[in-house]
Amino acid sequence: MTVAQADRLWQWHGLTTNQIGRISEAAADGDRCVWCDQVPGAEPIRLFDEAPWLACCRCYMVQLAGMLTWFDWHGHIEGCGTCMSGGRCLVARGRRTLHQQAAALSGETVAYCAPCGEPVTDQDLVVAVVWDTGTRLIPAYAHVLCLALHALRIPS
User: Fold this and answer.
1) Which of 28, 54, 79, 112 matches a 20 to 30 Å C-alpha distance to 90?
2) What's the structural domain count of the chain?
């Protein structure tokens, strides 16, 4: 493994752990997984040096797969002329499908459009976006039309 690969893995780890929501007191104490709130298996993953937070190997890998597939989809969109012009792209659709499958493993059954807050359906033309919540940047989804309207500052 090269230094660049190790740095990249550390970045993925940071993005994955950034998605931890509210956790139980037992998880905060390091007695439970931060995602499933179960006792971690034989080889728990210590998420931070400065905190006792742990994750089950399965939960960590599911979260990591969700992040990796989201960034794969997002990375494609940024470099694809069809996607950037708001068109339908089969490659993007395939990457979206892979991300949806990975996200479903973590229990994400409904995704929401960051600009409008409405659920995203399979029929919608949707892109992966980095969304500014006002306090942090998060990986998110957006209907193409909502994103265009947001960019123009026209209320949807």
Assistant:
1) 112
2) 2
Give the β-pairing of 54-55 and 45-46.
Answer: antiparallel
The answer for residues whose C-beta is within 8 angstroms of residue 134's C-beta and 6 or more apart is: none
Residue 43 lies in a domain: yes
| Residue 9 within a domain | yes
Q: Is residue 31 part of a domain?
A: yes
Q: Residue 54 sits in which domain range?
A: 3-59
Average pLDDT over residues 21-39: 86
Report pLDDT for 43: 87
CA distance 43 to 145: 45
136: Cα separation from own chain's centroid: 14
Q: What are phi and psi of 117, to 5 degrees?
A: 80, 0
Please check whether residue 11 lies inside any domain of the structure.
Answer: yes
Amino acid code (one letter) for 106: S
pLDDT bucket at 12, cuts 50 / 70 / 90: low
Q: What is the pLDDT of residues 79-89, one digit of tens each?
A: 999 988 888 89
Measured CA to CA, the distance from residue 123 to residue 97 in angstroms comes to 12
CB 16 within 8 A of CB 71: no
DSSP state of 87: -
3-state secondary structure of 133: coil
